[in-house]
Amino acid sequence: MTNTHRCWVYGDNVNTDVIFPGKYTYTLKTPEEIASKALEDLDPTFATQVKAGDVIVAGRNWGMGSSREQGVTSLKYAGVNCIIAESFSGLYFRNCINQGVLPIVCTGLHLTLHTGDSIELDIANHTIISGGNHYSFSPLSPSVQKIFDAGGLLPMLQKQFAAAK
Amino acid sequence: MTGYTFVEKTLARAAGRVNVRAGDILDIQPDVMFSHDNTAAIRRIFEKIGAQNISRPERAVFTLDHAVPAPTTEHAQNHAEIRQWAKAQGIRQFEVGRGICHQVISEEALVLPGEVILGSDSHTTHFGWLGAFGMGVGRTEMAALWATGQLWIRVPETFRITLIGKPPAGVTAKDITLRLMKDKSVGGGAYRAIEICGETLQHWSIDELPVMPNMMAEFGAMSAYIAPDERVLEYVHARRARAVQAADSDPASYRFRPYEPLYPDTDADYDEDYALDVSTLQPQIALPHQPDNVVNLSEVAGQPIQQALIGTCTGGRLSDLEAAAAVVKGKHIRSRLLIIPASSEVLLEATRNGTLATLIEAGAAISTPGCGPCMGNHMGVPASGEATIMSGSRNFKGRLGTTDAPTYLSNPYVVAACAVAGKIIDPAEIIGTMEA
Questions:
Q1: Within 10 Å of residue B408's Cβ, how many Cβ atoms?
Q2: Facing B140 at nearest CB: one of A18, A98, A165
Q3: What is the structure's pLDDT at A1?
Q4: DSSP secondary structure, chain A, as one string
Q5: What is the DSSP string of B390-411?
């Protein structure tokens, strides 16, 4: 199945301090508050204009820096369920999986797109269609896919603990 | 058959396996798991899991360090929840003022050579200086660790960095780390473990050893490692002996478990090798807004500086304070100079040996041990347009709490010299030759 998604396009080495500033990490708690600060120091238009189903398309090393999970949850609460990048910070990639946000590693796409452009995403067939071109991406490894399919690490553990009772 | 890297050995041990290879996916049981001011948020996730108690409480550690003393009621409330949770679960918790998680856990010898430590903090790579595997995890992962005592991990490939030569006077582990960042870029170590080796290491003080492993977080690495030498093993031994003598310590407790340092095999397989000759390196500086935006210090001399900071888990140890004191001794600073020791132990020793007096006489402001403004919470947040130079590791836009305030990274001599001059300057111009 193919779905159309509007893109927010960014470059290389976008760090978690500009995705979700550190000064908010211990005081903002509700999803609405956290979403309102997403990309505050990278793109001040994002938090007010993002719509559910939008995707991020970026260059190398997306999400480098802090381990803060709000780097992922601020985008998730804003409606982003998929981030496409040439590569991810390892910690950020884990945080994506654990939050049920799909990280897709895809080379060459971000340079062909501008914010506001649309792409078609066929997750089952690991394909992105953009400007008439097909880009394929690798599936997640089976153990990682298992966490993602459960909706993330928390729902997976909730099921395990509920079953053990 | 090829030999094993450090991570292959230590992760095999943590997974209860005989041997593992890069690429294997394992469930590991860490020897130590720690969290800091994010502990209360992790508890909220933990409770959603449906677990009742932390599964291996003796392995958990909480520190209060990221916003201490509490700058607002909300931060104070957060700390109060953490104290209550530590008490309810019987978890070792370090109070406001004891210091930064990585420094305190090292000083207390809570993690040991050859072991695995997971922390809900990206700079957990720091523990490579003790010959331990340290990896940062997210909040949900820490909640999972509390609930189950284990976490999945893909055994990383290893990138070996060999440091060659004796660094010139005034060139520290910080300069060498910044230069590596420039050469290989942030992300140069992505997804991989780093082994740092070479003759240069013997020229680093014990306080300098953590600098490069710590900043492997900025390098994108999963973890870092330096083979523990006699100095490090003595450090660990002395600190365990001190703890076991303390009135409240039980020698039979988990804290005093046996350990075995692990070393990579000489025929281990490396994903990449990089050699850096440091013998002619000049002092380095990272310009805004990325730690690999690095140039020789001389290229940017003269830029005005409003605030200088000696502190953080990267650059707040005794040798950093002493370096700053050597530069400012007998002078008066032109820009603000903030001194935030990495721990109470650093603060105490700097008080006893006169370092603090020298700094205060020169006009420095001294604050409570902790992360200081390196998260933008408090204690040195700059005004718009103000330039800060610091001995820390991260100069991303907004890192210190203000979006349009540029931050520079350099070694502690340079940071102190900039405070004296009110601009970027080579410390040799302040104190004459660095050989002194």
A1: 23
A2: A98
A3: 87
A4: --EEEEEEE--S--BHHHHS-GGGTTT--SHHHHHHTTTTTT-TTHHHH--TT-EEEE-TTBTBS---THHHHHHHHTT--EEEES-B-HHHHHHHHHHTPEEEE-SSSGGG--TT-EEEEETTTTEEEETTEEEE-PPPPHHHHHHHHTTSHHHHHHHHHHHH-
A5: ESSS---TTTTS-TT--EEE--
Q: Which of A17, A87, A91 has its CB closest to that of B138?
A: A91
Domain boundaries for CATH 3.30.499.10 within chain B: 6-259, 286-431
Residue A72 placed within a domain:
yes
Q: Which of B404, B398, B363, B399 has the alpha carbon at shortest distance from B386?
A: B404
Domain range enclosing A99? 3-139
DSSP-derived secondary structure letter, B324: H
Which chain A residues are closer than 8 Å to B154 by Cβ?
141
How many structural domains comprise chain A?
Answer: 1
Q: 0.95 exceeded by the pTM?
A: yes
Burial class (CB in 10 A: 0-12, 13-18, 19+), B256: middle
Phi, psi angle pair for A17, to nearest 5°: -70, -35
Q: What is the 3-class SS of B341-378, one letter each residue?
A: CCEHHHHHHHHHCCHHHHHHHCCCEECCCCCCCCCCCC
How many residues belong to chain B? 436
How close does chain A come to B122, measured CA to CA in Å? 5
B186 touching chain A per CB within 8 A: yes
User: How confident is the model at residue B436, as a pLDDT?
Assistant: 41
Cβ contact A26–B75 (<8 Å): yes
Has residue A125 been placed in a domain? yes
Q: Give B75→chain A minimum CA distance, Å.
A: 7
Residue with tokens 């502990």: B39
For residue B395, the chain A residue with the least C-alpha distance is A17
Whether the bond into B378 is cis, omega within 30 of 0 = no
Asked if B25's CB is within 8 angstroms of A25's CB, the reply is no
Q: Between A60, A141, A161, which is nearest B187 by CB?
A: A60
pLDDT average, residue stretch B124-128 = 98
A16, A69, A76, A99: best to mutate for the B interface, most B CBs within 10 A? A69
Per CATH, which fold does B6-259 belong to?
Aconitase; domain 3 (3.30.499)
- What is the rounded distance in angstroms from the CA atom of residue B146 to the CA atom of residue A76? 24
Residue B141 near chain A (CB below 8 Å): yes
Residues B221 and A98: their CA atoms lie apart, in Å, by 19
- Supply the ipTM of this predicted assembly: 0.96
Question: Averaged over B262-277, what is the pLDDT?
Answer: 98
Dist CA B338 CA B400 (whole Å) = 13
Q: Tell if the CB–CB gap between A41 and B397 is shorter than 8 Å.
A: yes
Token digits of residue A86 = 């040439």
With contacts defined as CB-CB under 8 Å, which chain B residues touch A17?
Answer: 394, 396-399
pLDDT tens digits along A69-119: 999 999 999 999 999 999 999 999 999 999 999 999 999 899 999 999 999
CA angle at B358 for the pair B352 and B360, rounded to the nearest 5°: 100
CB B389 within 8 A of CB B413: no
A positions 24-53 inside 8 Å of B (CB): 25-27, 29, 40-41
Note the CATH architecture for domain B286-431.
Answer: 2-Layer Sandwich (3.30)
